[in-house]
Write a structure and sequence with these properties.
The complex is a heterodimer. Chain A has eight helices and no strands. Chain A is mostly helical. Chain A has a single domain, classed as MetI-like fold (Orthogonal Bundle). The model of chain A has no long low-confidence stretch (mean pLDDT 92). In chain B, helix 1 packs parallel to helix 9, helix 4 runs antiparallel to helix 7 (144-157) and helix 7 (144-157) packs antiparallel against helix 9 (183-213). Chain B is globular, with a radius of gyration of 21 Å. The mean pLDDT of chain B is 94. The chains are: A mainly alpha, B mainly alpha. At the A-B interface, helix 2, helix 3, helix 6, helix 7 and helix 8 of A face helix 3, helix 7, helix 8 and helix 9 of B.
Chain lengths: 222, 214
């Protein structure tokens, strides 16, 4: 075989790769915050909202969970403009990622809410807390503690899935890899290096989330 | 410009969906076979075999599937193999599936009481017989729900092979969209076809889960 690996281009490409990784991280940070918030609303609505809202949330969850993220992304980026909603690529990516993640985390958060014993709510109400206070101060923190590991996994999965937003020209890690390999003609080496960067990101993100969770939610979070 | 009627769009998408189904099946069968090998390593008594299998699983679960497909597509030709998008897609998804399936089944093996192994040994079975006759059948039975759940994930993942040029549902829809400029309709239809493929399986997995919980 005449082919030999060449990583000589790497020195000049480190900055570009770092910029791409930063965009990937920005996407996942925004998605995590917005997605978690949305899923708390969704899970609460699915449990105690009016009937039509419950049905709507149920349909939303099923549709998002049973269709590919790539198709959802294309639908939002290419499809919505025909309804007069034009989004720039980064916003479309953030919206698609948030909506996709929320469909999974609504079920996760819901399971957490179900895991909090009813006695907790009753005790809080008996102490004179208003229903909203009961939810925000008593039920939600306990639920989040239970589901934190599952939430962490979902965030990492979403970070890995975000690679496809390169297809609508968001300049994240995969997009930069596509551009790099077009310039260096070293496709395998480029994607290999970027794959390793993703591996590092996913392992680092998981560690960070576990450590952060321990601090914020107390011991017992794995 | 070519005129596409609504039925032209539907017909072409449904024809393309055959490739999505075929790819999903090929990757699931391939993934199950390779996944079994990974599982043998993962539950082996040898420390190094275990480490290699854990590393393999961590590698595939810790990197984007899109990158794995790119590495297949660009890497295999370097080994002297002529490779087309179909081969790259099948192989990429096979390895991807094998890591997830091995991990799912491993959880099933771990869930069995140690007494099952002891009972097998006391009957005079050797290691492979124990696995084949006692451990694996039970491990597969209790992990049916997550296995079907993963099949849903695999079907959805075939969408990514459109990016390396495999003519499945999404790639065909991109071409149709470029001709008709009706992204709302075209991608809506694609979503509907994927939903029709995945939703029954999701429901089936849920039923299995409920049956197992009872």
């Amino acid at each position: 075989m005449g082919y030999s690996l060449d990583f000589g281009w790497l020195a000049g490409a480190a900055g570009v790769i770092a910029r791409g990784a930063a965009m990937t991280l920005l996407l996942i940070v925004v998605t995590t915050i917005a997605g978690t918030f949305l899923s708390i609303l969704g899970a609460a609505g699915r449990r105690s909202g009016p009937k039509p809202l419950k049905v709507a949330i149920g349909v939303y969850v099923e549709v998002m969970r049973n269709t590919p993220f790539l198709v959802q992304l294309f639908f939002i980026f290419f499809g919505l403009p025909s309804l007069g909603i034009r989004l720039d690529p980064i916003l479309a990516a953030m919206l698609a990622m948030t909506l996709n993640m929320a469909a999974y985390t609504i079920e996760i958060v819901g399971a957490g809410l179900d895991a909090v014993p009813r006695g907790q709510t009753e005790a809080a109400l008996a102490l004179g807390l208003r229903p909203r206070q009961v939810f925000v101060k008593i039920v939600l923190p306990q639920a989040l503690k239970v589901i934190y590991p599952a939430l962490t996994s979902q965030i990492v999965i979403m970070m890995l899935e975000s690679a496809v937003v390169s297809q609508i020209a968001v300049r994240e890690l995969t997009y930069e890899a596509d551009m790099l390999q077009a310039r260096t003609f070293r496709a395998f080496e480029t994607y290999f290096v970027v794959t390793m960067v993703y591996l590092g990101l996913s392992m680092g993100l998981r560690r960070l989330l576990v450590a952060g969770g321990r601090r914020a939610l107390g011991a017992g979070v794995s | 410009m070519i005129e596409f009627t609504f039925w032209d769009i539907v017909r072409n998408l449904l024809l393309a969906a055959r490739w999505t189904v075929l790819l999903s099946l090929a990757a699931f069968v391939g993934g199950a076979l390779v996944g079994l090998i990974v599982l043998f390593f993962r539950i082996a008594k040898n420390k190094w075999a275990k480490r290699i299998a854990s590393g393999y699983i961590a590698l595939f679960q810790g990197t984007p599937l899109l990158m794995q497909l790119f590495l297949m597509f660009f890497g295999l030709p370097m080994l002297g193999l002529r490779i087309d998008p179909w081969m790259a897609a099948v192989l990429g998804l096979t390895f991807f599936a094998s890591a997830y399936l091995a991990e799912i089944w491993r959880s099933g093996v771990d869930a069995l009481p140690k007494g099952q192994w002891d009972a097998g040994a006391s009957l005079g079975l050797h290691y492979l017989q124990e696995l084949r006759l006692i451990i694996l059948p039970q491990a597969f039975a209790i992990t049916r729900a997550p296995t079907v759940g993963f099949l849903v994930q695999l079907i959805k993942s075939t969408a990514l092979t459109s990016i390396i040029g495999f003519e499945e549902l999404v790639r065909t829809s991109n071409a149709i969209n470029n001709a008709t400029f009706e992204p709302f309709k075209v991608y809506g239809m694609v979503a509907l076809i994927f939903f029709a493929l995945c939703f029954p399986l999701t429901q089936y997995a849920r039923r299995l889960e409920r049956a197992a919980a009872r």
